[in-house]
Amino acid sequence: MNTQTGTVSGWLRQNRTRAAFLAVLIVFFAAALGGIRRQDLLLTIMQGLSVGAITFLVASGLSLIFGLMDVLNLAHGELFMLGAYIGWTVYTRFDTVVDILVPLLLLAAPFVLMPLWRGIAYRIPRRRLSGSIALIVGLVAAIVSFTRFPLVIWNATGFANTPAALSAQVGTGLLKPFPAGSFGWAAPVAFIAMAIAGSLLALSSALLSNRQGASKHPNPSRYASAGLLVAVAVVLTMYKTPINDWVFGLSTSWRFLIAVVISVGVGALLGAAIEVVLIRPLYSRPIYQLMLTLGLGFILVELVGDIWGKPQFTMARPALFAGTGPDCPGQGFGGFFSGCSTVEIFGGTLRVYNEGFVVLVGIVVLVAVSLLLKRTRIGMIIRAGVQDPHMVQALGVNVRRVFTLVFALGTGLAALGGVLAAPSIGLDTGMGAVFLLGAIVALAVGGLTSFSGAAAGALLVGLLQQIIIRFGQNGITLPFMSEPFKPTPTLIPAAAILLMVVVLLVLPNGLFGRSEQ
Amino acid sequence: MSLLNVDAVHTMIGHYHILEGVSVMVDEGSIVALLGRNGAGKTTTLKTILGIHPASSGSVEFDGVDITGYATFDIAAKGIGYVPEERIIFHDLTVEENLRIAERTKGDLESKEEFLFGLFPDLKRLIKLPGTSLSGGQQQMLAVARALVPDNRLLLIDEPSEGLAPVLIEQMMEAIKKLSSRTTVVLVEQNFIVASRLAERYVIIEEGQSVKDGAMVDLVNDEEIIRRYLGAA
Question: Does the pLDDT at position A364 exceed 90?
Fold first, then answer.
């Protein structure tokens, strides 16, 4: 190979098939878009971009994780879905979040003192047995004490308090915190029981992991952080009502921001936990990893269905994107900033949230992650690790830690996609599977480990979907049929798979992938 | 006290018992060559030192610390650089990034730049190019330079002359001689002429066991041993 690879002509010479195929694809999509009525054209493209942006948020994490760790995380779609549900909960029922947060903080606090547990574990004989016992006792204690915590939650099966009914109250001023439950005299007991359960679980993880106890005294900052977690739990319990009233009094735009932050945070933490506990022991057995993530996905779907109720419901759009009034819809590109929920451009009507904000966030994430990969040391390590993690390890880099970080980043992005998608496409326990399929097609089309390829693939998947929907509404006149053909939306997954098959037949490494050798 | 002490190490790769008792002592500041036929276990010895294939019994001591069973990144971070047989340059990274990634503290590369470009002047010219665009010889230079970026006290170099043109072999030997003034080197080398001109001591590995060691000057004159363990010299 010579140094000419950088030039356009050099690239063309080496990628003749690719260039020709790209041209065919562009012509195809242009022809399909050309068949759409003028006033629908912009809407179709922008809706395609919107779906593409959400697909990209799922696909980007999938691509990073697969590229670096060779793990195809089949639970990725479900983490996307979970992001949506958690986002909805923070947005609509912050009081429930506060109530759940208290026991979780108490459970997490002992884990901060890990060196202490390692030191203790060091002195305990028969680590495996005693670790298993500590695990079981800890789990039972955690579940039992969890049920003692007062928890206000919607009633997923009742009528007035279903998530759908609660969603309808957002922004109307009708939505109020549930009457706060309280412990009464049992608070200290429940607190201590939960902390003990957390300690047992932390000890069991120290016993069951293979790491030897190096330092026995955690440094003071760890005690301080553990203390801080407990203090936050106490404050949340004592000032539950004023905190809830304050958050419920905030504008929905602020609450949406809080929802995004918490949702992404929870998604990332969950991803890190999944990597450390479930994926890490199985790096030498990839098939088991695949089955494990598949099973995990099923569990998450059922769990979410149980907690939030099966039927789909919507999430109210934040105030910033829900404006109405005499001046609405906004006109032209400036209309995006008019505070209206819709904007008219070139005779078509776009929704500011769906076709504006979601696309914008997608682009911001694309740029941010690209910069992270190109400009930072961690990005450099990821790019090198995609090729050969063992060599990176041999240079003295703790690749395992980078794996966990990337897994967390990927699932965090998926959760971001979920919480963004909720106000535009609604919540449904099946949404994870739909977008996972889209993301996998996007990856295959774009090239499995290419980050920009994931973006291009997601864009194609989104466009394809919207073009089919548009033709489904208006019909398409085909030369050999007497009536216009109207594809049904059920054709969307089939068309996406067809796109993938065609691309892979011509370019086995996808549009932007590099060959394995 | 020796810098590296590999003591009666056994290593399994899957179900295969590859090393069945290898002992290597390396004094600080020396160059030691591991010699032996293809498949004798020389590369595995290097990988065992680095914990890539951890020893199932025996011990590896580096600088007085027993590092047997440590994770690879931990061992490397103690000051061991590795130049693998396959070189393994990162294609997606530029030459500069390929060096930068080996930094253990910020500024490692800047402080070594002069020395590295003195050893391999070519690299300075190539610094902004992607790893894919390098020739085999340039990749080898980059792989060695990369191992020199942090303050490594020991360098494990696997087959530095393999696949290189004679002119480049000369250049590579020159570089290894120069860099050995800074770090201790363990070398795996098929090319006996290269090994004999570089190393002060040797260890012969035969079917997973270290069978003979000593000073290189003695080996060069001992045709009997050369023929028996290394084939025709």
Answer: yes
Q: Where are the domains of chain B?
A: 30-48+79-230
Cβ distance of A393 and B72 shorter than 8 Å: yes
Average of per-residue pLDDT across A286-303: 94
Q: Nearest CA to CA, how far is B39 from chain A (Å)?
A: 21
A284, closest residue in chain B (CA to CA): B14
Burial classification of residue A316, based on how many CB atoms lie within 10 Å of its CB (0-12 exposed, 13-18 middle, 19 or more buried) = buried
Greatest Cα-to-Cα distance within chain A, rounded to the nearest angstrom: 83
Q: How far is B109 from chain A (nearest CA, A)?
A: 14
Q: Which CATH code for domain B30-48+79-230?
A: 3.40.50.300
Q: What is the largest CA-CA distance in chain B?
A: 51
Interface confidence (ipTM) of the complex: 0.93
Contact A445, A506 (CB under 8 A): no
Strand order in the sheet with A342-345: A330-331, A342-345, A348-351
Assigned token pair, A122: 């060091």
Residues of A in contact with B71 (CB under 8 A): 393, 398, 400
pLDDT: which is higher, A239 or A477: A239
Contact B101 A393 (CB under 8 A): no
Residue A216 has pLDDT above 70, yes or no: no
Give B66-125 pLDDT, tens digit per residue. Answer: 999 899 999 999 999 999 999 899 998 999 999 999 999 999 999 999 999 999 999 999
Nearest chain A Cα distance for residue B91, angstroms: 8
DSSP string for B130-171: BGGG--HHHHHHHHHHHHHSS--SEEEEE-TTTT--HHHHHH
- CB contact under 8 Å between B104 and A392, yes or no, is no
Amino acid sitting at position B17:
H
Q: Residue A514: its chain B contacts at CB < 8 A?
A: 91
Over residues A289-314, mean pLDDT: 91
Q: pLDDT band for A2, please (50, 70, 90 cuts).
A: very low
* Structure confidence by residue, pLDDT tens digits, B138-189: 999 999 999 999 999 999 999 999 889 999 999 999 999 999 999 999 999 9
